[in-house]
Design brief:
With 388 residues, the chain is of the alpha+beta class. Helices cover 42% and strands 22% of the residues. The strands form three sheets. It has a six-stranded mixed sheet with strand order 5-4-6-3-1-13, with helices on both faces. Bound molecules: alpha-D-galactopyranose. Alpha-D-galactopyranose binds next to helix 5.
């Protein structure tokens, strides 16, 4: 990374490098913006941003992957419009930093990422968080404040009303464990996964154009479902506050589509708790079953899956040693997460690849999901070299 930096910017004197990981969400999908529970793992796949101060009044940013250089004067940043490309994330973050009172200083940035774009493994949050840290250049900011600032960049500039999960886990992720995050109180606890289980993400290699608009639709549908449910339960502030029993009682008064959306969220929150509990008992069978239930709920009630993800899940479930599988992330493409016994892995990968290739003509990438630590400054440059 140092070599590339020197080639692009002439000098790497005073360079600092910041890293922010991608994530895989094990269970608790589309619950975060309903103030519920999620169980993500920060991955070793990560985005790295190297930075040095610049002597002009500009912010320069180069993406190694896109092989694109972009630059703006610092004064122009608050007035920039969306470009509908990768630069929306750093610009969105820079704008939010300025709004929050952190002056953005002239700098040279180089972005390298091992989180595949469109993989549903949260390359966007990894880019936001790593750029925010690089632009802060070591200035202090609370970790929750940083997560919320990056989330606001996505809301206000990128235009996606996302929940807090991706940014939060990119910052608070822990090596050796998943984190169970309460998206209302913004608190989390580590959840240690049984050593006898392995998790892998299988990338469908597609991201359907529908994803962003469908995400916005789901957020709205949940708000409308809550408006209906509040007539029955006035003290309920979000879907998280409605028990399954209460929901069943009120469901007949809801339009069918809204009832299905709400049912997904309400049952999914319960599945997170049950999954965490099953993990503590090392009950792989129960954990696997909950993953499959989650997928079916996302497929039929929440309708955010797609043919490719359903195929990956259904194929995984036919392979010996697989405990369970589900789509992960926002949906409409991206990845499936599969839980398996470690000795099943080699055969699993080749069978998945062959089946998917035959059906869709694409070669899925398979990534091991080993928990890694959250974002921070990288001082050991060998880590970055090893990242490719
Ligand atoms: C995307 C969003 C998250 C979350 C997931 C679905 O990854 O960024 O906030 O809503 O979808 O669980």
């Amino acid at each position: 990374m140092l070599d590339v930096f020197r080639r692009i910017y002439g000098s790497a004197d005073g360079i600092r490098v910041f890293r922010a990981p991608g994530r895989v969400n094990l269970i608790g999908e589309h619950t975060d913006y309903n103030l519920g529970f999620v169980l993500p793992v920060a991955l070793q796949l990560a985005t790295y941003v190297a930075t040095t101060p610049s002597s002009d009044a500009r912010l320069h940013i180069y993406s190694e992957h896109k092989q694109q250089m972009r630059e703006w004067t610092i004064a122009a940043i608050p007035f920039l419009e969306r470009e509908h490309d990768w630069t929306d994330y750093p610009v969105g973050v820079a704008r939010e930093l300025i709004r929050a009172g952190f002056a953005v200083k002239p700098a040279n940035l180089l972005v390298r990422s091992t989180v595949p774009e469109g993989s549903g493994l949260s390359s966007s949050a990894a880019l936001e968080v790593s750029c925010a840290l690089a632009l802060l250049q070591g200035r202090r900011i609370g970790r929750l404040e940083l997560a919320q600032l990056c989330q606001r960049a996505e809301h206000n500039f990128v235009g996606i009303p996302c929940g807090i999960m991706d940014q939060y886990v990119s910052i608070f992720g822990q090596a050796h464990s998943a984190i169970e995050l309460d998206c209302r109180s913004f608190t989390h606890r580590p959840v240690y996964l049984p050593e006898s289980a392995a998790f892998v993400a299988v990338n469908s290699m597609v991201k359907h154009a529908l994803a962003a608009s469908a995400y916005k639709d789901r957020v709205k549908e949940c708000i409308t479902a809550m408006d209906h449910l509040r007539q029955h339960y006035p003290s309920a502030a979000s879907l998280r506050d409605v028990s399954l029993e209460e929901f069943i009682e009120a469901a007949p008064s809801l339009p069918d589509l809204l009832a299905r959306r709400a049912r997904h969220v309400i049952t999914e929150n319960r599945r997170v708790a049950r999954f965490v509990e099953a993990a503590s008992r090392v009950d792989l069978q129960e954990m696997g079953m909950l993953l499959v239930d989650s997928h079916r709920s996302l497929q039929h009630d929440y309708e955010v899956s797609c043919a490719e993800l359903d195929f990956l899940v259904d194929t995984a479930l036919t392979i010996d040693g697989v405990c369970g599988a589900r789509m992960t992330g926002g949906g409409f493409g991206g990845s499936a997460v599969v839980m398996l016994q470690p000795n099943a892995a080699p055969d699993f990968e080749s069978r998945m690849i062959a089946a998917y290739r035959e059906r869709f003509g694409l070669t899925p990438q398979v990534y091991p999901c080993r928990p890694s630590s959250g974002a921070g400054e990288v001082t050991n440059f060998e880590t970055i070299a090893a990242a490719g």
